[in-house]
Amino acid sequence: MKLLQVMRGATAAAAFATLVPVAHAQFFMVMPTSAPPASGSGKAIEEKNVLAGKVQMDPTKAYILVNDALVSINTFLREPDAETIAAWNRDRQAALAKAQKKYADQLMAWEEDVAALKTMQANAKLPPKPVEPTLDTVDVERLELRGMVVAGPLVRYTKKDRNTYLQEVKPGTYIWAGGGPTGPICLCMGTVKFEAKAGTITNLGNMLQALPRTDLEPVKRLTPAEIKAIKRQNDLLPPGSQPNMAVPDSLKAWPVVEAELHAAGKMNNLWSMTVGRLAPIPGVLSYRRDTVIDERTGQALPNPKLVSMQKPKI
Amino acid sequence: MIRPSPDGGTIVIRTIWAGAVSLALFAAPPATAQDAAQPATPEPAAAYAAPDPASLTMPKLEFTPTQVDIGNYDKYFYFHREGTSFAEAYNDIRECDALASGSNIYLGGSDAAEGMMSTYGPLAGGIGSAVGSAMADAIFGSAARRAQRRQSMRNCMGFKAYKRYPLNGDLWKEFNFEEGLGRKKEAVRLDALALQALVASGPTPKTEDLGL
User: Does the global pTM surpass 0.95?
Assistant: First the structure.
């Protein structure tokens, strides 16, 4: 009971902040084999290059700024626009044409094999017939992963008082996918997104850690070690903290806007991580069961049933 | 009530387990009683064709718990939600299985492990090195994948307002499966998922729920 009372004092911000050490603790252990390159698209910028004049703001690019008391990693998925979708469709058509050519050869070989086997033995066990490729089965980079950006953990903009990450990206809307493909949690069942406009730094500060709130139900499953870890996080980011939106002095001349978070719906478990969702954010994100609610409009987001990305074993 | 957690027995297992448990903290809380009374809107479209529940036999759920059983409730349990049809439960279980299956943990050494060595000290990096081989993955990976799948199912079904109830290992194995390094055959999976849906939409359990 005493432990439970301790945890009742832990708000979402504190509990949420456990992501950071958890992600870090597992960073070296959880390496999804299907994960794309950790760098993703976009370019990480270092302060020394801005101060030296080697890097200047490109008005055609957008910039995402994140800060954290610890070394962190954040993955953002760019919401596909018409251009991205068109490129994806072109790639799929090209891959399908290639696969169909291969399929025709495989089918011919299979027919020859079957005919030969039947000639040799009436009840011969026949090899499985090749499966005809379709647009949905061809192997191209997934639409959701086109334009993925990973900020951190290695190339930091500043690292003295606080770790800051500045990422140059293609303008668009970015969905926060969590601690990155090397992190342990998939925000499959609800997260947030924001727009990053050209010629502007969109400042997330540490709002992704500070804003989400949770209650105490999961406390039932905490161990003393985890309670200690959360307490340590409470010290770093006290419950109810306002987000730290500090902008390094070296970026004062660049246009900066605070990120406006919006609810984002369910997505597939792209890196086969443990299933989770972002804790509710007042005024932005809530849930009715597993339906994501956009608190800015009060409307429920579409809740399609997700299907497995795994190949069935027959 | 705070229950003691099972001890993984080694640093590797323990670290993974602790991480998986902490996910519950990171994840949003499971649906509340109010959520349970209020169906989600809009009603999700049915994506999975459910079998005829009349063709299924309700698994046995009653048992007299031993201390061993109680210690294994993290592994052996079933889901149930009041007022849920078989088709709804089947849809929910299939979706959660889709999200949770194919856990892709790879306990390999990497540049990232080396980075951790410098950032977090030799202990962290040392653990990375200790498991930095395919052999380590073969030894520990299967258990880690099974644990991750269990955790994912608990989170996903918890979000959908299902409660978790205790079982013992023998009864659990009658209508459940675990996936470690390999994937079970589709027919085996679908049969088990259908029975899980039958239980999830069946009579109200007589035991207390286990929480998330």
Answer: no
